[in-house]
């Protein structure tokens, strides 16, 4: 299999695979959609906002944006942790215990009152050290139950001598907005909202060209007609653009050709059927390596555990 990969790279004179969905160190794509959302999201913790929300469809780039958010938080000013929700049935006490562990509480108690007191004390200690605690909850559309949302509202109310002790960042599918809309007490706390939309065709073309160039590939490997087909079948979703382009390139490689055709894209789209096979809840690749705690959560803390983009 490794020989196949080497032959594939050599065939197109690539230095690296251009369209994998794993983070590529050193690559960052600038476009108004991503840049605007990033600026909105980053200003939440940086300006001490309580609740920031990021929404976007599967594959729209939420994970990449969260990674850049964490990179933008100086470790001498912030103590940040990330939790990824893995299923919908969430016990509020267990949820709070995971938050407590995120910020260094080694044995959080089972009794809610004592748990809140211990967490509040820990957040106060972080504040006294001149740091701001930031909790990022990815796949937050899983938080459908009112009890857990009530706990989030409570966390936003915790204060120390220097004011609010915690900033929350919720990221998830558009269903997250519906959940928050059914909980006015928490929705009214939203101070920053960022939204990721699919790429327009011109942005898709620039994105594909930048990824290709980063791999040192020649521009004519993806002719305009193939690029248009990739945008059409992916509907401008970055993750699907990568997946389709990668498979279309492999079709060209198998046929011994140096450029992708529309037929290659059609074949890849037919085989993958991305619209029909997209999972109901995607896994957030921002958390790697991941320590899995129980069935409902994946927690990584501190922020240094997050790989670069």
Structural commentary:
The chain contains 13 helices and 9 strands. It is α/β, with parallel strands linked by helices and 309 residues long. Helix 10 packs across helix 11.
What distinguishing features does this structure have?
309 residues; alpha/beta; Helicase, Ruva Protein, domain 3; Rossmann fold; 2 domains; seven-stranded mixed sheet; two-stranded antiparallel ribbon; 46% helix; elongated; disordered C terminus
Short description:
With 309 residues, this protein is α/β, with parallel strands linked by helices.
Quickly name the level 1 CATH class of the largest domain: Alpha Beta
What kind of sheet is the major sheet?
Answer: 7 strands, mixed
Mean pLDDT over all positions: 84
Number of domains: 2
Structural class assignment: alpha/beta
β-strand number: 9
Please tell me how large the radius of gyration is: 21 Å
In CATH terms, what is the fold-level topology of the largest domain?
Rossmann fold
CATH superfamily of the largest domain: P-loop containing nucleotide triphosphate hydrolases
Ends: how far apart?
26 Å
Strand order of the largest sheet: 7-1-6-3-2-9-8
Count of discrete alpha- or pi-helical segments spanning 4 or more residues: 13
Give helix % range: 40-55%
Indicate the proportion of strand residues. 5-15%
Which of globular, elongated, flat, extended, rod-shaped describes the shape? Answer: elongated
Task: State the low-pLDDT regions, or none.
Answer: 274-309
Order of helices and strands: HHEHEHHEHEEEHHEHHHHHEE
CATH architecture of the largest domain: 3-Layer(aba) Sandwich
